[in-house]
């Protein structure tokens, strides 16, 4: 396989005719290089570099989720952007992934095998640079119950249906009292106040509105 370079920031390149072994080699090549996502779907490989906007929203939504679980005393196992693989078929990295209902099964784990382990209960997908591959279909194939997707303007909560499709929902499955409108309101505040103040406001709101206990 010829040398493959990462595209410019915020861009993607799509390659065809890539076998599974080549995909795994590229995972090793790009391992440890921040801001690069590889998505593999049955011979098609997309290499995407993330923008500052992408990384900011990824981090902020992750902070909201972690603050919610802390304020509501909900156990959480977070594994960031670990690589999801279905051997010889598909592979991708989410922006954030969390085990919540299944936290006890994943507690303290340093290795995860989707052939035997449950999928994460919640995935965050920042889609500012639209993927050329069907990442939502890949999450559905893995059985991920809930995906939060943000395209730079609009946040959606998508819930897995019995037919393995996703349907948008006004409320979260992992946090039933939490609505898209709730989170979108705090996202809109990011241009008005600093992030520390935003998180303090979010935590105070979570304690009052979501039934959380004292910090």
Question: How does this structure look, described?
Answer:
There is one protein chain. With 215 residues, the protein is α+β, with helices and mostly antiparallel strands. It has helices spanning 20-30, 52-71, 103-106, 135-142, 180-188, 195-209; strands spanning 12-15, 36-41, 44-49, 77-78, 84-86, 90-92, 96-99, 122-126, 146-150, 155-160, 166-169. A hairpin with a 3-residue loop joins strand 5 and strand 6 (90-92). It is globular and about 50 Å long.
Give the strand tally.
Answer: 11
Principal-axis shape: globular
Structural class: alpha+beta
Name the beta content range: 15-25%
Number of helices: 6
Strand order, largest beta sheet = 4-7-8-9-10-11
Q: Give the % helix.
A: 25-40%
Main β-sheet, in a few words?
6 strands, mixed
The low-confidence runs, each spanning 5 or more residues with pLDDT under 50, are none
What's the SSE pattern? EHEEHEEEEHEHEEEHH
Average predicted confidence as pLDDT: 90
Alpha-carbon Rg, integer: 18 Å
Through-space gap between termini = 54 Å
Could you give a quick summary of the protein structure above?
By secondary structure, the protein is an alpha+beta fold.
Secondary-structure map:
Elements: E1 12-15, H1 20-30, E2 36-41, E3 44-49, H2 52-71, E4 77-78, E5 84-86, E6 90-92, E7 96-99, H3 103-106, E8 122-126, H4 135-142, E9 146-150, E10 155-160, E11 166-169, H5 180-188, H6 195-209
Parallel strand pairs: 8-9
Antiparallel strand pairs: 1-3, 2-3, 2-6, 4-7, 5-6, 7-8, 9-10, 10-11
């Amino acid at each position: 396989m010829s040398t493959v370079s990462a595209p410019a920031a915020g861009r993607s390149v799509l390659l065809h005719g890539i076998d599974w072994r080549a995909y795994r080699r590229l995972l090793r090549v790009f391992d440890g290089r921040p801001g690069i996502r590889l998505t593999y779907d049955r011979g098609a490989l997309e290499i995407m570099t993330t923008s500052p906007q992408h990384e900011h929203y990824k981090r902020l939504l992750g902070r909201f989720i972690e603050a919610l679980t802390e304020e509501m005393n909900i156990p959480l196992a977070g594994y960031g952007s670990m690589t999801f693989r279905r051997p010889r078929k598909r592979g991708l990295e989410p922006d954030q992934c969390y085990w919540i209902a299944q936290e006890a099964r994943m507690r303290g784990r340093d290795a995860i095998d989707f052939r035997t382990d449950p999928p994460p209960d919640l995935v965050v997908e920042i889609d500012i640079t639209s993927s050329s591959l069907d990442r939502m279909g890949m999450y559905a194939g893995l059985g991920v119950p809930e995906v939060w997707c943000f395209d730079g303007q609009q946040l959606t909560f998508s819930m897995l249906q019995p037919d393995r499709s996703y349907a948008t929902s006004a409320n979260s499955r992992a946090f039933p009292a939490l609505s898209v409108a709730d989170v979108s309101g705090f996202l809109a505040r990011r241009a008005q106040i600093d992030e520390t103040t935003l998180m303090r406001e979010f935590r105070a709101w979570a304690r009052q509105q979501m039934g959380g206990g004292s910090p």
